[in-house]
């Protein structure tokens, strides 16, 4: 039997004026899961995260967290939720330790447990060396760590992170992703992002949201399958002729990109990779690259949306 979900959102909708930002969205998250919320800018991710965290009332729908109805019992339900908004709520004139002290009180952590909670959040988020620095003087990456620390300080069951790597440089992005992996060992995580590889790196399951509606809800593996295009990019060290490959079973078409580079389109049921490699070895073709191509996220959106249309 499937265990009770940790968080269950049913038929959530939210309007801004006559515009529908989130349209009848339902989903669940179970213990230990990292759920990716993937969608382009304006798709309704932040609006959904704000509703899940109890910071924005839905116009319709229900949110149950750890068995508690968020709309009926916001205080109890919110105790199970940690939330990092798109723009972190930091007080830049406080030190890291002072700010987390404030957050511990805000989250109604017992006085005798506050210090342990703060120390643990500082330690887990790699803030030990900067705990006495003013937040305003920290790099964006470290400010984001503080944002994550305030989201986990009360040991919530579910941590909601809204675009946690946006605006960071590549090194900071790598560090924050590692921190999210660590966080996911102890909490269920809902991660909103418009970056597909981020979802592929961090999440177990992905939901794609577009124009306020959920278009896809499946495992990362299922998404990767959808991403798989039926084409390969080939490069050779020496000039090559497309004709030499055309007879290989499965190959339907070859684009000659240069004397050295080709795009091979194949029938989805017959991947010619093995045959190509065999031929390359037998004929001493100096193959320097053979790369399966992926659809772009935009292509996958289009495919998913078209499938929905034909299914309906
Ligand atoms: N406070 C608001 N007032 C009016 N419209 C809003 C408000 N907040 C969001 N919207 C609209 O709702 C839609 C969804 O916005 P939302 O911020 O949830 O998208 P998003 O997927 O998080 O994108 P982004 O990454 O750009 O924040 C957009 O069309 C946006 O303009």
UniProtKB/TrEMBL annotation:
SUPFAM superfamilies given in the database record: P-loop containing nucleoside triphosphate hydrolases (SSF52540)
Molecular function per GO: ATP binding; ATP hydrolysis activity
Stored SMART domains: AAA
Coiled-coil region list: none
PROSITE patterns recorded: ABC_TRANSPORTER_2
The ABC transporter domain, residue ranges: 7-236
Record-annotated membrane-spanning stretches: none
Keyword vocabulary terms for this entry: ATP-binding, Nucleotide-binding, Transport
Family assignment from sequence similarity: Belongs to the ABC transporter superfamily.
Name of the molecule in the record: ABC transporter, ATP-binding protein
């Amino acid at each position: 039997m499937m265990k009770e979900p940790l968080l269950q959102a049913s038929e959530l909708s939210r309007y801004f004026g006559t515009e529908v930002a989130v349209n009848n969205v339902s989903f669940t998250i179970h213990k230990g899961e990292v759920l990716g919320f993937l969608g382009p800018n304006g798709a309704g991710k932040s609006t959904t995260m704000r509703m899940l965290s109890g910071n924005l009332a839905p116009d319709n729908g229900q949110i149950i967290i750890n068995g508690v109805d968020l709309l009926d019992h916001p205080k109890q339900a919110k105790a199970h939720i940690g939330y990092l908004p798109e723009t972190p709520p930091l007080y830049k004139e406080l030190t890291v330790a002072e700010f987390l002290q404030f957050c511990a009180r805000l989250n109604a952590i017992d006085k005798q447990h506050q210090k342990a909670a703060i120390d643990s959040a500082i330690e887990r988020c790699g803030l030990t060396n900067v705990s006495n620095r003013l937040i305003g003087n920290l790099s964006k990456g470290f400010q984001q760590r503080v944002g994550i620390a305030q989201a986990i300080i009360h040991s919530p069951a579910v941590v909601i992170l809204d675009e946690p790597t946006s605006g960071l440089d590549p090194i900071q992005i790598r560090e924050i992703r590692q921190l999210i992996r660590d966080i996911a060992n102890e909490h269920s995580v809902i991660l909103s992002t418009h970056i597909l590889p981020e979802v592929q790196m961090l999440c177990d399951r992905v939901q794609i949201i577009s124009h306020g509606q959920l278009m896809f809800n499946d495992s990362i593996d299922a998404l990767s399958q959808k991403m798989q295009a039926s084409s390969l990019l080939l490069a050779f060290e020496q000039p090559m002729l497309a004709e030499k490959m055309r007879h290989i079973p499965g190959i339907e078409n070859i684009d000659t990109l240069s004397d050295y580079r080709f795009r091979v389109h194949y029938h989805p049921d017959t991947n010619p990779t093995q045959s190509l490699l065999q031929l390359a070895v037998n004929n001493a073709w100096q193959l320097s690259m053979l790369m399966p191509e992926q659809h772009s996220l935009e292509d996958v959106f289009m495919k998913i949306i078209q499938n929905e249309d034909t299914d309906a």
